[in-house]
Amino acid sequence: MLKARKIILDCDPGHDDAIALLMAAANPKIELVGVTTVAGNSTIEKTTLNAQKVCELAGIHVPIAQGASRPLVREQVTASSIHGESGLDGPSLPTPTKPLLEIDAVDFIIQTLSQSDEKITLVPVGPLTNIALAIRKEPKILDKIEEIVFMGGGRFGNWTPAAEFNIYVDAEAAQIVLDSGVPITMVGLDLTHQAIATKAIQQQIAQIDHKVARFVVELLEFFSETYKEVFGFEGAPIHDACCVAYCIDPDVFTTSHLRVDVETNGQFTYGMTVIDLHGVTKRAANVHVAMELNQDKFWSLMLDTLQNYR
Amino acid sequence: MKPVFIDVDTGVDDALALLFALQSPLLDVIGISTVSGNVHVDHTYRNTLAVLDIAQAPDIPVARGMDAPLIRPLHTAAEIHGESGFGDIQLPEVVRNGVEEHGVDLMIRKVKESPEPVTLILLGPLTNMAVALKKEPSIQDNIRELVIMGGAGAKGGNVTPVAEFNIYVDPDAAHVVFSSGLPIRLVTWDVCMQAVLHPEENMQLKETQTPVAQYAYRLIQFLRDNNDETFLCDPSAVCAVIDESVIQTEVLPVEVETQEGLTRGMTIIDVRPFLQVDPADPRPKLQVAMNIERERFSQLFIQTLLQQG
C-alpha cells in the first residue's frame, strides 16, 4: 500500500469543515499532521473552539493551532446565516480538554513544513489568509508543499452572484496562493454543488452505529435546514469534504488545467475566481479546476471512512 | 409587421443579422444606426450600406453613430474581422447613400415618429442606445423592448474569460441601458454558442441563385470554425424578435461590472438557486436567454434568407 499522504487541514468549522476533519482523521490513506484554524464561517475564537470540540468528540489527537483573526486587507465577514451563531449550531458537543498549540497557525505551518523531510499537502477549506501569510512570511516552504487543495471559488457564486464565500472573504490572500507556483487544485462550487448530502445519504450515515456518525447526521440536519432556508437547496452540499476525498483518492473528481485569477477590484465581482475556460487570456494554466464528481466513489469513500470510527 | 430599429457594428455576423431582418416578412426595419465596435464606425457605416445594396433593400435610413465608447478608448476586434470588418470578403461599391443625421438622432426621431412602439435590436456596443436614452428620455415611452446581443453567463466570455465583446467595449453604456427600466431581452454569448449552423444547412443557400443567398453563403463560410460549423451570434438576436418562442428566457437580476479589473464588462447574472426575484431588489431585471432551439432557429434563418425579395 502507498504511504499515507501527509496533510495539514486549515479550516473554519463550520458544518462541512467538521465532516472534512472527521474524514481526514479516519482514513488510512491520510496522515493528518495538524489542524489550523482561520476566521471565516465565524470568528477565529469560535472556529478554533469548534475544531477542538470536533476533535474531542471523535477522539482525534492532532495538534491544533489557531490562525488569522481577520482577512489580509478587508473587514471580516462571517456566515452565521448558514452555520448559526456558534459557527457549528445543531449538535451538542463536548468541552475540549486538550490545549491549543502555543504557536499560531502560520508558524505551525512554516515549522511543520520546514522540518519535514517529505512534502506535505495543504488543504485549506476556509479563507486563504493563513496560507497566504505563511507563504509570504517564509517563501522557502513552497518547496515543501506537495499540493494545495483548496475549497473555494467557482464559475458562479454563493455569497454574491459572482463570488464564493471563502474567496470573497479574503480575495487578496487567494490571489497570493494562486500566484505561488505550487501545484494547486481548486475545488469550487461547480464541483461541491454535485456533493449534495440528500436525505437518502443521511439515512445511510444514520445506519452506522457510532456517536461520530450520529454527530454527522445532526450536522447535516442543521446544515440542510439553513441551506434550504437561505439558498433554496434540497440537501446541503458538503463542500469541504470534497477536498479531503480528493486527497484520499484523486479519481474522485475530474480536473481541467486552466488559468485562474481572482478579481480584487470589481464593484460587483470582488472575490470572483476568473476561470479561463476557453484560453482567451493565453496565459499559462496555474490551477487544476475540479469539474465532475464521481458520485459512487465519493459517497462510498465517505461512508467507508466514517465506518472506521466504529 | 413589427417596427424595428437596428443598431449595428457590421461585421460579418451583423451582416447576416441584417439580411435576416430585411428578408423577414414579419419585420419592418424603420432605420439603422451604426456604431464603433467590431471595427471603427467609418467601416461599420459603409459595410451596412453595402449589405443593404446586396439585399436590394428599400430606402431605409442608415446613419453613422458614435465613433467611440462613452468613456473609454475604443477597443475593436479588427484582428478577427479585418480592418474593414469583412475579412477578405469583397463588398461591392456602395451605391446608396446614408443620411446626414447622426445615428443617435436618427434613432430618437424614428422611435418618436413611429405610430406604434418600436423594438430595438442592438447588435454592437450599446453606446448609441445609451446616448439616445440620455439625450431624449421620452423615447422610452414608445419603445416596446430592447433585444440585445451581449453579455455572457457561466459558459464564459469571448474577449476575457468572463466578458463578451459588446459589453466589454462599452460597459458604461451597458450600465445605462440596463438600468433604464425598459423591457430588455439579453441574448448572451452562451446562447450564441448554441446557435450553430451545420454545413449541409449552408449548402441550401449555396444552391440558391439569389444575391442574398449567395452572399449569406459566403459570409457563413467565412465565419465557420475548425469543425465547419458556424455560430450565428447576431442573427440569434434577430430570431428572438421574429419568433420569440425559439429562445427561452428567464427573468434575472443583471449588473455590469464597470471597474477596470479582470472582470471589466462582465454581465453578472444572478442565477443563484435560492434567489426569489424580490420586487424590492434594486438591480435591473432582464429577460436573459437561457436556451435557443437550434433546429427551429436554423430553419427559420435559412428559410427567411431563401425567400425571393
Could you please describe the fold and organization of this structure?
Chain A is α/β, with parallel strands linked by helices and 310 residues long. Chain A has helices spanning 15-26, 44-58, 80-83, 105-115, 129-137, 165-169, 171-178, 189-192, 199-206, 211-231, 239-248, 295-307; strands spanning 5-11, 30-37, 64-66, 120-124, 145-151, 184-187, 196-197, 236-237, 253-258, 260-262, 273-275, 287-293. In chain A, 56% of the residues are buried. The mean pLDDT of chain A is 95. Chain B has a single domain, classed as Inosine-uridine Nucleoside N-ribohydrolase, Chain A (Alpha-Beta Complex), CATH 3.90.245. In chain B, strands 3-2-1-4-5-6-11-9-10 form a 9-stranded mixed β-sheet, sandwiched between helices. Chain B has a two-stranded antiparallel ribbon with strand order 7-8. The longest helix of chain B is centred in the N-terminal third of the chain and has 14 residues, at 41-54. In chain B, 55% of the residues are buried. The mean pLDDT of chain B is 94. Chain A binds chain B through residues 155-158, 161-162, 230-233, 259, 261-269, 272, 274-278, 280-281, and chain B through 154-162, 253, 255-263, 266, 268-275.
